[in-house]
Amino acid sequence: MSALGKKIAQKSDAQLIYYIENIDKHTDEAVKLAVSELQNRNIAVPENIFEEIEIERKARLIKKNSFIRQTLLFCIPGFFFSSFTLMGILGIHSVISLITDCITSWTIIWITTGLGAIILPLLFFSLYQGNGFEKTSGCRGITCFFLI
Q1: Of the four, 7, 16, 76, 140, which is 20 to 30 A from 70 by CA?
Q2: Cβ neighbours of residue 57 under 8 Å, at least 6 residues apart?
Q3: Does 132 have pLDDT greater than 60?
Q4: CA-CA distance, 15 to 21, in Å (whole number)?
Q5: Residue 132, CA distances (Å) to 115, 146, 147 in order
Q6: pLDDT score at 58
Q7: What residues form the membrane-spanning segments (predicted)?
Q8: Which pLDDT tens digit goes with each residue over 51-71?
């Protein structure tokens, strides 16, 4: 008999029933040994207990491998970043619209955005390959670059 089996054999009936009623708190082996010990003591256990154990084990496995919570946590900042970006673009548009008309304002925003989309990656790779970020106080330089 294994060490766990010896421990289970020393438990009271109430403790063994606790193992069965709280399958998620114990290992599958411990629960199966508790069922066997109860059956050896001629105490009634549900006939489908092993099916319930298997269903609970699968549920635990699904819960363990579920990434829904982590995904939702990453969605929250994404929502705020896009909202802040939208507010920033509309704010820039409002400021430029004070100087010129609406169509010209959007044209200026699109041109500067397009130029930034072309120039900033080139700048990034040239600084990265030349170790330019290490010269700008470590991580601070790259952080500022990504905020731009």
Answers
A1: 140
A2: 28
A3: no
A4: 10
A5: 22, 14, 17
A6: 81
A7: 72-96, 108-128
A8: 877 887 787 777 776 677 777
Q: Which among 5, 40, 42, 37 is positioned nearest to 18, based on CA atoms?
A: 37
Other CB atoms within a 10 A radius of the CB of residue 62 amount to 9
Residue 90 CB: number of other CB atoms within 10 A?
11
Locate the domains of the chain by residue range.
3-64, 68-147
**How many Å from the N-terminal Cα to the C-terminal Cα in the chain?**
67
In DSSP notation, 60-104 reads HHHHHT--HHHHHHHHHHHHHHHHHHHHHHHHHHHHHHHHS-HHH
Burial class (CB in 10 A: 0-12, 13-18, 19+), 31: buried
Contact between 20 and 45 under an 8 Å Cβ cutoff? The reply is yes
**Single-letter amino acid, residue 63:** K
CA-based nearest residue to 119, from 137, 145, 94: 145
- Tell me, what's the pLDDT at 48? 81
Hey, what are 138's tokens?
């470590």
Encoded tokens for 65: 């491998």
